[in-house]
User: What shape does this take?
Amino acid sequence: MDVSARNPSLREILATNLRKLRNERRWSQEDLAAEVGLHRTYVGSVERAERNISVDNIERLGVALGVEPWQLLRRAQGS
Amino acid sequence: MDVSARNPSLREILATNLRKLRNERRWSQEDLAAEVGLHRTYVGSVERAERNISVDNIERLGVALGVEPWQLLRRAQGS
Assistant: This one.
């Protein structure tokens, strides 16, 4: 099912935003993982909305990407 | 140390917002816990910034309180 056809879960919103911000920086999952101090497979699982990530790790991802953590959980306009 | 004197952690921002929204609704921790399907002591620990809550439970809290989940993680202006 196309995610855009229904309300995405918060995990899915985070996954979309994370991948978008990472790609904008031309970082690999490994690059981001190294910045955050997490494993590449962990970042991959968050980007696939498979992982029930914690608030502390959401904060770390925001810091690494230079955005406010809440921005990672906000659905992009028009998406 | 006064939290307002430094940058609060994301846990602390969530704790402050959660308590504020719950009090505005005149809900006890037990009321909110029942809405969300969590235990009262869990809600208490989140409001004391003791718990590394997951994204799925942040989503549940937002739904119960009628706000977008990202709003729970955004620092209130002037606070």
